[in-house]
Amino acid sequence: MMPPKFASSVTRALGVDRVQDLVDLSLRAQELTATVGDEWCTEFWVAPMTPAQAEGWRRSAIELRETWSFVNLKSGGVLAVDEVPDHALSQPVAAVTYPALLSQLCAWWLFHAWRGADLVTDAVSGIASWRLTTAPLAARALIEQVGCLLHECRSLFNAWADAKAGRAGSAARAEMVRSKMTPVLVKTSMGTRISGSPERLQAPNVLTYVKRLEKMTGEKRYSKWYDWLSDASHPAFAARIASSSEAMVHETGALAFRFVAKGPLSSAPLDNTGKAIADRIRPQFNEVAAHIADSTAAAAKTYFEALIQARQLVDDFAITTRAGALTQRHLWPAPLPARTGHPCPCGCNRRDGGIHRWGQPTPVLNLLGS
To answer: Angle formed by the axes of helices 222-232 and 135-164, to 10°?
Structure first.
């Protein structure tokens, strides 16, 4: 992994502490990409069939020598899923319900892992190269992405807490888990801002994500940062002053001027030959660059923290339901319960199954301000 290269002029403009913070966060994003960049999973959904459709397909599956599990719903519909291993045929309700939900959780977590890591990397790379035309776009998208992660985490954590607390029989419990988790997962996977989309699939406005980020972290500058980054992402005021010095006014007040340059601007007094005095060079403050750097650092730190906690949710669902053992489809991450006496695969190092049992507490999303 290669740390982003900050030119000395950029380091002077941003300050050593800011730059070191951004370098560390970029390396962490690169490490995450190296860990999960090549991972993949199969996301699948189970839709009800009519009894007649199910019966017809049951006969066809036998002829095709395909292994399916079928479950009758109280509503009269039938759920069915293929790729069921032989040992799971005796658990049709679990096999039909839990692997599909886990596949959607896995895809959800991987989406946030990949996209968030890319945005951190690009935002830091942009400011390191003083690309103030594109760095605001990445920094603004990172704020949106982290806000989205927190917004969706809150909904999924609450849904899973309700679902896992149920102590009903196997079939009733599976149906309750499906009813609690499915609406949230549908919204996270298929939510869109495209005009004309069904109301149940309309994603929240991005400003909802920004407000969620402010509320759950206690960082009140996100709205200000977002406004500045949005202005800098368009051919507007912030974009124009990103490449200019502060305005200076002649002592007469007769004219004002500023310097315009693509790179960081500095000022220094001149010696008697007209050359700048090197040890008295002072970088000029660039408000756009400062907002990019500060918002990226704050959002990235929250992103990594929230992603770890989101993974705990996925692991708890996977181990509690044992969903990975109920399908032959490839799911990742999909840990299974540890063998007796072995440490838990979720990383808690417990050897007794820990909280991964029905009726036990679920992981809690714990961020400053929540």
So the answer is: 140
Structural tokens at position 162:
């309700």
Beta strands in the chain (DSSP E): 68-72, 78-82, 248-249, 256-257, 266-267, 282-283
Name the DSSP class of 192: B
135 Cβ neighbours under 8 A, 6+ residues apart = 123, 126, 127, 292
Q: In this structure, how many other beta carbons lie within 10 angstroms of the beta carbon of residue 136?
A: 29
Tokens of 77: 């519909």
The residues, ordered by sequence, that sit 6+ positions from 8 with a Cβ below 8 Å of its Cβ are none
* Nearest by Cα to 228 from 147, 301, 135: 135
| DSSP annotation of 100 | H
Contact, 106 vs 43, CB < 8 A?
A: yes
Instruction: Determine contact, residues 233/292, Cβ cutoff 8 Å.
Output: no
Q: Tell me how crowded residue 225 is: count the other CB atoms within 10 A of its CB.
A: 24
Strand 256-257 and strand 248-249: pairing?
antiparallel
Decide if pLDDT at 217 tops 70: yes
**β-strand pairing of 248-249 with 282-283:** unpaired
Q: Is the C-alpha dihedral spanning 20, 22, 26, 31 positive or negative?
A: positive
- pTM exceeding the 0.85 threshold for the entire prediction: yes
What lies within 8 Å, CB to CB, of 47 at 6+ separation is none
Name the nearest CA neighbour of 330 among 44, 112, 88. 44
Both tokens assigned to 9: 């002029």
Pairing label, strands 78-82, 248-249: unpaired
pLDDT tens sequence across 150-207: 999 999 999 999 999 977 678 889 999 999 999 999 999 998 888 888 888 888 999 9
- Which residues lie closer than 8 Å to 234 by C-beta, 6 or more apart? none
| Residue % of the chain over a pLDDT of 90 | 78
